[in-house]
Amino acid sequence: MPESDVMFEGSSLRKQMNVELVSSSVFDKLTDELLIETLKHLPIKPANLCKCVSIRFRSVISSSYFVRCYVKHHQINNSFAFYYQSKPTFHNMIRPSLMGIDITFAFPIFESPGFSLSFLTCSEQQKQETLQYLASNNGLVLCCAALRRPIVYLVCNPLTKQWIALPPPPSNVKTVYVGFICNPQYSCNDDQEQGSKTTFKVVRIEVVNCESPRQLSGTLKLEIFCSISGKWTEEFFMSSSTSDHELFYGWNYRCPSAVVCDGLLHWDTLSNSGIFTYDPSNGECRTIELPHEIRKPVWAFKYCLGESAGRLRYANFSWDDTNYRVWELKDCEWLLLHKVHLDEMKATVQTINKDCMGLLSPHPLNQDIVFFWCRSSCRIVEYNMGNKLLKLPCFLRDAKIISLLSPMFFPFVLPCWPTVVPRIKQHDVS
């Protein structure tokens, strides 16, 4: 090699080393408090990427103290997405690699690679497998490989690509109402990222045949998985009301998963009895009666139950007076928030046919917004209760739903900091 090239390479190497030394010295002059104060202002994705800068950065960002500071600074989070069925599939199943197609969002954080479950397919056999998206809460998703025997449930974080498989449930019944609740907490152990004390529970309620002997006994069996124990247990709800016994004697294909609100699980069934509620902290069950104006059964796409900014909401359309109504549950009573006649709703887009709309969900964060599905244009539509305007949402990706029935529709709200998927104890299956 010519001497001039050697001198040039040596000069370039020295310049690179000098830059690294300068950069290193700049960060070294910052205390951990100043570094945390700087990094906590970053959006969630760049903040996590900063772990790759140095060992010190990774240590600081992985500490539970940084997480607490970050969450406190970003108390108001406005990032959410919706998972929906764009096309009808067998039992709402889809291959994980294709699941990203059925996601609509308004925030760039879900882009590249976006909200996907393709990381669950490790082997060639799994790549051909189909999954059911069942529920999400506090950044974690519950899905099911229902075609496996026995049934396999998976809990994952689509953004961090962490996941675990749960042991098989006590029964292999597929037709069940499911509930999933996650409680992310961070300990004072700053040694590693696993300082997270996240816990979760999965609840299964079997759909009971009307001819079942269990109808006579007045009991309802709940199968519950707890991440702390790593085991499934069975609990029995004894009711003194005959109407409560009929809660799960029918299959509501639209609402197989519970709505989580205020730490409770809420199921909207086909029964006139009301909404079945389970408290995972103490195992208590009760039934919340629907507003007296509600008369079920009604068309599935003409009502919905959901959570908005920490409040439980119920919306429906009445054929009697062609009015949409929205209620909110407060102190165990339903308060009518909004009532609007079909003719009062002002559409800003010609493709929105008000006569062909079905209710999907209240907005998970904005209390003024309710989402509809327009069957004629196959589009998701948002309605503002304040100005009574119907319009297409400002999603970054087109949300087209081709279905004769109301589609499965799940909101996913991104927490201020990624929820760590906890490890569960492994038990031998007898």
Automatic annotation (TrEMBL):
It comes from the Eukaryota. This is Uncharacterized protein. It comes from Cichorium intybus.
